[in-house]
Structures
1.
Amino acid sequence: MTISAIVPVWNGREPLERLLGTVAAQTRPAAETVVVDNGSSDGAPEMARAAGARVIAMGRNAGFAAAVNRGIRESAGQWIAVLNTDVELAPDYFERLAEAQGWFATGKILRMGEAGMDGAFDLLSRAGTAWRAGSGCADGPLFANRRAIFSAPWTAALFRRELFERVGYLEESFESYLEDVDFGVRCAQRELAGEYIPEAVAWHRGSATLGRWHPDTVRRMARNQVWLVARHFAGMPLWPVVAGQALWGAVALRHGAGLAWARGKWEGMGGFGAARRKAEGQAGGPVLLEFLRRNEREIRELQTAEGWDAYWRLYFLLTGGGAL
């Protein structure tokens, strides 16, 4: 089994150098490391070449999704490891993930430089809003067992190449944010499960490029939430979407990003029809609705055990989510 490590980068020379050091130290090494450069001006591609990586130049900042897709298409491995630049891997990360029996695998991602988890796997609500299970939680028994999953954070994950032939690639119109969740929905609808392997450990700095509440981050997330709904939620109940999206806007407003949220929703609605047409044949149905309900029950259980975020408490009060 050969592994190709794909790393998209945009002006992240220092974290990329640290990441490549941890990739080189893997007990199960990658057959190749492919750095896809989104138009960096800080010397990141030159450093990557000096470290032995093959560099593909996009020529501009085409976004995470386009860069990853290009890397997958131009790599040769039977398995594809997709890695963010602001991640550092334990030496046995690839070796542990390679034990997976499913179509893909991810490990336990801890927060770099601070206590607690960055996340384990993604859960999606009927609102089209997602939660990275474990985000902000203490590392404990709830996240200590292997389990089947359908949506892996593409922070540091391993995929069988054949999966892309069955599901397709990342949706490039998303650019960055929620493109991995969109991919997970497609996996769920085809019942192609992956595996969460907590023995595989990595550390993530998180939103190192722009920051979690940077206006561009919020705008893209708000837009992509709408496009996620357009692509997959035809025939789904409308009230959870309205309630959940409005609540997320309130959270953005509290962080000083209300205008960016509004811009993102405007862009999202402007492209709603095109997003729905592009995903024709992939939307809705009882399989997806049951998947979303299972996700909401799990969000409720984890939030109850670990302490409630205000967003999810209000969402469940308004929608009854997870109780269906």
2.
Amino acid sequence: MTSQYLEFREADNSGRKTKRFHIYNKRTNEFLGTIQFLGAWRRYVVNPRKDIIFDSVCLDDISTFLKELTAEWKESLKNEK
């Protein structure tokens, strides 16, 4: 997924069953938060760094990325059967 302001970089996922990503500001390279799978909710969630704010454009991009990751995870479950 491409975003005008954000970059989603896959984190070190060794030893993990699901992927984890870090969110960075494209212009400043500032770390903004983490995206990871929350088993209790059975979906990907965002954990922003303290005191980070997002506008509606960035929130839309994050939401789209979360939906894509969750759909990919659900598809992988179908392929395991």
